[in-house]
What does this fold into?
Amino acid sequence: MRPTGKLHLGHLVGALESWVALQQEYNNYHLIADYHALTTNLDSSGIYRNSIDMAIDWLAAGIDPVRSPVFRQSQVKEHTELHLIFSMLITAARLERNPAVKDQVRDLHIENVTYGHLGYPVLQAADILLYKGNLVPVGEDQVPHVEIAREIARRFNNQYGTVFPEPEPKLTKFARLPGLDGKRMSKSVGNTILLSDSPDVIKARMRTAVTDPQKMRRNDPGRPEICLVYEYQRKFNPAASEDIEAGCRSGALGCVECKGRAAEAIIAALGPFRERRAHYEEHPHEVLDILKDGEGRAREKAEDTMTGVRAVMQFG
It folds into this structure.
């Protein structure tokens, strides 16, 4: 995940919950992709602080650094070495066909695509394959990147000798939670609820959420299947979602009350998170120690992989 600072509900639903659950079944590596942050913004002044904030959110969400190393990409030099080798195994034309980069260029209104931005999926392939990852939890928009990693792994193995597995994408049930305006959740748009927001802020933010435009008054029948707030209810208040759906359709439940109930459910769900986050904010040295430990463990695995790479390539 790229370090953009404090995380929001979309990150929790789309990634973190899956990551926490997968710790029970797999050996996970959790990478803060700080080099990737440069692909769309060359200003590096906030990357360190954003990396720390994001690490705190990961830990507060339940990532166990003892079981699953947490580390910064920039602190393991083998990422850049493997990226260089992989860049020889894919054409510019193939990268230009990548729909994920096309969408990002369009959404961010980027006029001049840099070499590094075009090659973003190649560095991502190095991030995955350096640890011989075989399962990559991603949103639907990142599946094309995993496919590029699979192609590069096949090309390397065929050219030099088998070193890498072909990773598979793993999608989550709630792959993407819409923002408060019904569009993609994004801090730059301002349609988010941050995981670190206070209860009062969550209540205020939920009051701005869009609802069914045909439900203007309390007694008007609603259409929960198109209502953003009901989607939040299904996620954070599942036990009451059937009653909420019935009340919405009949008109007995007004939007103001529904938003309030959704806010309370989100506040309750984030209660343990806020408590853990406060601990790490008060003990920043613990976060730095966790990162240094994770980076040491990641580096050990990366060095082992690169020893195998150099051997089959006959570089020593």
In short: The radius of gyration is 22 Å.
